[in-house]
Known about the structure:
Helix content is about 40%, strand content about 20%. Strands 1, 2, 3, 4, 5, 6, 7, 10, 11 and 12 form a ten-stranded mixed β-sheet that branches. A two-stranded antiparallel ribbon has the order 8-9. It is an alpha/beta fold.
Amino acid sequence: MPKISINLLNYNTPWLEIKKCLEHALSQDFDDYEVYYMENASEGQPNLIAEVTESFGSNSRLKVVNNGENLGYAGGHNKFFKNTDSELLMVLNPDALLAENFVSEIVKAFEDPLVGLATGKMLKPTKNEKGQSILDGTGIIISRSRRGRERGQLEVDHGQYNESTEIFGVSGTAAVFRKEALESVKILNDEYYDPDFFAYWEDLDISWRMRLQGWQARFVPNAVVIHPRAVGASPGGLKNFFTFIKHHRSFSLNIRRWNWRNHLFTIVKNDFGWSFWKAAPLILVREFSMAIFITLFSISTWSVLPVFFKLLPKMFLKRKIIQARRKVSSKQMEKWFV
């Protein structure tokens, strides 16, 4: 098996975008790798299997998989994780363009046997009016109120994140996992990413579970990826309140539902101990504030509540399994809630 296998999972992405993504993924300066193109389109829906095969079928690195249905982000990548035995497994979004040396740089992080997951420096595709690069993210960090976000997102890249460092977790945009680490956090029926999430926050969830198993996450600044990000932070955050409202409303109803529901499920499954109880007032204040915001400006989001309560017992079952297996203490975890 190759040292690293990359899974490009597609659902309803335009052909030219897929073509560009594959061109970059198949042009790495690293020898020991392969690329999967996985199509999530349901039967009867248009898919890009024919286009991909015609344009890239002669490339021996490429493998094409048609799922025949939309398994979601989690389900599609879980199928890849289960059926691929390379030492390192990478997930790749269709709108992400890898620099030529991305793979050769990112694999260096795994020379440390404690590193279970890694990500690179994500940059926006266009520069600002001064010609400066804008960061899309440099790894997931998490606040004491348990808000996960991309470190440095929307900041001008002044080189402030040019040091390789340990981070809390990795975004699902272009993340690399050690196969051994994935197997250590798998629960129930081959769940790596949580398929009940379907989409959004499953990257924070799996990062948190790997942390509970003692694996380290690493940011590799020389591994660069260009990524526009359809759903990201609002410029200025709550300081620009009306922009924040407009930004939030620009997301589809499903995205708003998954975003609210899944971040709570992540806390339910993974948080524990004195570090949680100390932060509980902050967590409650944030969640109460979000509830008020949703009620005033996005009330349709509450239509997710029946599904939320239906899935909640299953989340507590998953929590029981995760917590029974964890290898770190609450004190060891506390340093990551910044």
